[in-house]
Amino acid sequence: MHGNGTSVIDGAAIDPGAWDFVAPPVIRFGAGRIAELGEVAALLGRHVWLVGGRRSLVDGPHRSAIEASLGCAGLATELVAVSTGEPTVADVARALASLPAGGRDGVVVIAVGGGSAIDLAKAVAALATNLPAGLSAEAYDPLVVDRLEGVGRGIPIEVAPLPLLAVPTTAGTGAEATRNAVISCPRRRFKKSLRSPLMVPRAVVIDPDLTAGCDRATVAAAGLDCITQLIESFICRVRRPLPRALVLEALPRAVRALPRVLVDPSDGAARSAMSHAALLSGMALTNSGLGMAHGVAAALGVECNTPHGLACGLLLPVALAVNASVAAADYARLERAIDPAAAATDTAAAAAFVARIEGLCALAGLPRRLSEVGLDRERIGWLADNSGGASLRGNPLELDQGALVDILTRIW
Fold first, then answer.
1. How many helices (H) and strands (E) does the chain have?
2. Where is 167: in which H helix or E strand?
3. Among the four residues 34, 267, 343, 390, which has the most C-beta atoms within 10 Å?
4. Domain count of the fold of the chain
5. pLDDT digits (tens, 9 = 90+) for 313-355
């Protein structure tokens, strides 16, 4: 740290300026920690509202352990919402309309599942205290929209949400550590965030054993989502030393662990490394920014119903190529964190990093072209027009609509 308050990363002075850092106050990480769920939940409330996925909770192999832990802590438990995919406005509205009657005092929301289940739970926890109770799903629908970014009236979350405890069962989205919930609306054709610093989960229990049942496609998509988040939060315009330090710690683990999990899902050490990296990716992105891959991924999800992680895996290689002219020093720093014996020159180390990530994307076996996920060529202009928002604004290279059309056409 220099006397003027600046720090040095890769020999370049970066003035941190004024910044905030938000993260879950309580994190319990490690194999077998699901047994402590009841103990942690009891710190937050007396009555549990469960939100989970069909496979991760309702029909999942860990439901009995979850219920046993909550029961041992003397907590009354109700299943209030089941996630069936990336949450929509209609899903949130239906969940709010079906919440138990009565007061909210002492209620803690527990999310068990991947990013979709956690995002649904975040929305329920936040809107249960910021919207009136007892309305119909039809009445809640426009009220939900009015609280999303970029649509409706932009009404903020002002009342503290119900305390949320997140239990991720995939290793990728980092939703257990972020301040937003991504909500789509097929009818209105958007995918936007409900966002507030108040929405960061109050506690997280991360047990890598819970990811053991994920199929290969889920592991690949979630893992590349994690890696995309780490890279984009490192190279984005919002350059903060603390999130960058998290990336330098997490990314080498992730790029070594993901190939191992793809080959051998029973590799507990590799699954643990991916769960760890996913958590840190959530912390990094929520305290910095993202870039082109995430900016386009949201619009691609609207147009083609492409799952978010799959879209990120498709877009990451082209995003790396696009930003290479301005991010070579960052790429080289990341390559040296992964391989201390990497080339001394930034140009060579950066090229090795891009090749490394391209190889990892190829190994994952996800689609490599937009046509493979069902995008019609004539919709490229629409995709570029609707790929704005905070993520694209964070991209290190400024991209206008024409440039984005050219880029997307190359990978169609």
1. 14, 10
2. strand 164-168
3. 34
4. 2
5. 999 999 999 999 999 999 999 999 999 999 999 999 999 999 9
